[in-house]
Amino acid sequence: MCGILGSVNKRFEKDTLDLIAHRGPDDSDIVHLDMGENAVHLGHVRLSIQDLSTAGHQPMYSANKRFIIIFNGEVYNHLELRKALKDIDFQGHSDTETIVNYIAKYGIESVKEFNGIFGFSILDIEREKLYVVRDRFGVKPLYYYHNDKEFIFSSEMKPIIKMVSNFQLDMSAVNEYLVLRYNPSPKTMVQNIKKVYPGEILEYDLKEHRLNKYSNINETLIPNIKIDKNRSEAYWVDAVSVALETAVERQMIGDVEVGSFLSGGIDSALITAIASKYSKHKIKTYCIGFNGSAQFNEADDAKRSAEILGTEHYDVIADSSDYMRNLEESTYINEEPNGTENTFAQYEVSKLGAKYTKVILAGQGADEIFMGYGKYSAELKRDKYLPLIKIAKQFKFLFSSPKYHKLQRALYSLTEEDVLNRFEKIYTVYQEDEKRRLLDSQFSNHQTGLSYFYNLMPNELSSLDKMSILDTYTSLSDELLMYGDKMTMATSIEMRVPFLDNDLVALAQKIPSQYKIKNGIHKYILKEVAKKYLPEEIINRPKKGFEMPSLEWFQGDLNDDIMKLLCSKDSLITNYINKVEIENIILRYKNRKEFDVRKIYLLMNIEHLLQLLNKRL
Prior knowledge:
Layout: E1 3-8, H1 14-17, E2 27-35, E3 38-46, E4 60-61, E5 67-75, H2 78-82, H3 95-106, E6 116-124, E7 129-134, E8 143-147, E9 150-154, H4 158-163, H5 171-180, E10 194-195, E11 200-205, E12 210-216, H6 218-221, H7 233-250, E13 258-261, H8 266-278, E14 284-290, H9 299-309, E15 312-318, H10 320-334, H11 342-353, E16 359-361, H12 366-369, H13 374-394, H14 405-414, H15 419-427, H16 432-439, H17 451-454, H18 463-473, H19 475-490, E17 494-496, H20 502-508, H21 524-530, H22 536-539, H23 550-555, H24 559-567, H25 579-590, H26 598-615
Parallel strand pairs: 13-14, 13-16, 14-15, 16-17
Antiparallel strand pairs: 1-3, 1-9, 2-3, 4-5, 5-6, 6-7, 7-11, 8-9, 8-10, 11-12
C-alpha cells in the first residue's frame, strides 16, 4: 500500500508528491524537519488497507519519538512481531505502527525478520541517520538520487525527475537493456537515478552527507542456500502445500476485500483456490483476453477456471486499436523501459480489477522458484547434448530464417562455456553485431548487472539451480515485479505475490531440481501440490500467460504507427540510435522478415522514456 517520497536538503511540496498520488489516493501528508544545518522532507500517500482509521496515518513517529517512518507495502507477519513489543501502547493495528516501533527497539538490522513486500525509509532523529530499505525480493521498487548534500528517494522516478533538472539517457544502461530487455539494480536508464537492490539497506549520514550501503539481507541468505537431497518427493509435496497455504492465508491480511488475477494457467488458479478457503467473501477474479489468434485469448480458459473454483469473475478483451495508446500510457507509468509486453496486459486487467477490489493476489514467482520456463530444461539437458549443439551451431546457416529466432538464441547461448555469460546470452534480444549497428560509437559490450547476485551463490550449486536463483533476484525483481507493481499501483490497487513469501521461497530453494523438472514436466512438484486443490483439466492445460498477438499487429495494423513513432521528425530516439537501422527493423516486420516482437518493442519503450524526460513533468 502507499507510496513514499523523501529528500534531504531538497524541499518538495504537494504538487510533486501528487505525481505518485495514484499509489495512495486515500490520504497524504508531508513532514518537514529541520535538523541542524540540514532539512529532511518526508512525504507519503496512502492506500488504506490495514487500519483504515487515522491511526494508520503517515509519516508516523515511533512511540519514543526518536524515529519517523514512511512505509510502502505490507509486512504480513507484523502481528507476530508485535508480540515482542509488550511495552508499547499501540494506537491502532497497522503494520506501519508495528515496524517503526520494532526498529526503534531492535535496530534497523531487524528488517531481516520482516516477511512482506516493502520499500520504506526511517529517520533516526537522535543519530541523524536516514535509512532506505527494499524487501528481499524487490517486489516494491525504490529509487534514489545523491549529489553533494542532496539525497532524494521515491517509490517512483517521476518525482525525482521533477525535482532535479537535466537528466540524460545512460548509454551504458541502453547497451545492457538491448541485451537483457531490462536493467538490473542498481542501474536505471536515467543517469544518476539508481534502484535500491532487493534486500538492501542504505544509510545516509546527514552530518557527513555520505550515502553508505549498510547491509543486504540477501548477502547472508543466498550464500547459505543448500539443496536438501535427503527428502522424498512425498515430503516435498506436503511441505510445499503447507507453506503455500500459510503464505496465502498470511497475505489475506487487511481490512479490505482481497481478489485474484486468474489466467488460464495453474499458478493463479492454485492461489485462487487456496485464497477461497480463507476469504470471508466470494473471491473476485480478473482476466484479460485479446482479439486475434485463438492461441492468445485465454479468457475462455480463465472463465472455465472461475466456474470450477466458484469465483465472481470479470474479464476484458483488448485489440490492436488499444495498443499504441496504452503502450504510451503504460510506459509512462512503468518509467523504466521494459521488454516484456505484459505491461500492456497487466495495466488493462488492473484497471478492470480496480473497479471492485483494492488488493489482488497474483501468481508471479512460481516460474522462477519452481523452474517453469523452457530455458531451465535447456540448461538441464545442456551437458548431455552439448556435442550435438556444437555441431548444430556449425550448420546454423540452415536456421538463418528469422522464424527460427528462438533456436538461434539457444545455439548462441548454450555453446557458451562460462556460466554467467551463458545466462546473459539466454536473455539476448540484440546480439553483438545487431547492437553495434544500432548504437554506432555508443556501443559497448561490458558484462551486465547480473554478476552481483550471481557471485553470492555457493559454488557447489548446479548451474540449473543457479539460473533459477539468479532469476528470482534479478529479472523477477526488476522486470516482472517492477511492471506488476507499477501497473497495479497506477490503478490504486496493491498486488500481492504469495509465491514470494519468505518461508516458501526458502523451502523451494532447498528442493532438488529433479522434483522441479521431472520427465520433462516443468514445475512438477507444484503440479503435484495442485492435485490437492485443482482438477486435471486446469493442471494439464497448456500454458499461455498474458501473451499477446503482437507479431500480427507489428507486421500489419500497427506497422505504420510504429514507423511514425520512431522515425518521424519528432522522434527522440534517433538522437541516440541509428535511424536507418530502426527503419530497416520496422520494414523487416512489414515484409514478414522479422518475428521477434521484442526487438521493436524495446525501441518503442526507449522513445516513450525520452518523451517522459523531455516533458520535465
